[in-house]
Prior knowledge:
This protein is of the alpha+beta class. About 35% of the residues lie in helices and about 25% in strands. The strands form two sheets. A six-stranded antiparallel beta sheet has the order 1-2-5-6-8-7.
Amino acid sequence: MAEPKTQPTDADPVAFLGAKAPEKMRADAQTLLRLFTDVTGEPPVVWGTSLIGYGRYTYLSGKTTVPWPLSAFAVRSAALTLYILASAPEQADHLARLGKHTTGGGCLYIKRLSEVDMDVLREIIATAHALMTARHLSS
Length: 139
């Protein structure tokens, strides 16, 4: 079976965002980089060609174990995409208080950080990282 395309790399996250993030989103991307690092206590790692991930676990996909970050974000042309268990019941209250956003497939989509409550976003990231750590690293 082929290796998954999204693997941790040695790329510098700051340089990566400077080169890959659309200009209108660069400041928000740098803010997310600092926020995730502060909240998770993990160093940022560039995964594949689009993700900045924090922490690491492995899951079984068929017969292959696949590494994946505990929490992550990506800067897309339409929105900032946060991989933070948005569909988890523990996130419902936070999301109700966050501000302008959409969700889908467990992801949180934000067009501009100026449209959300940053304290609530901090709670969302912390909750997701704690849930993922408890599910995948506590045994």
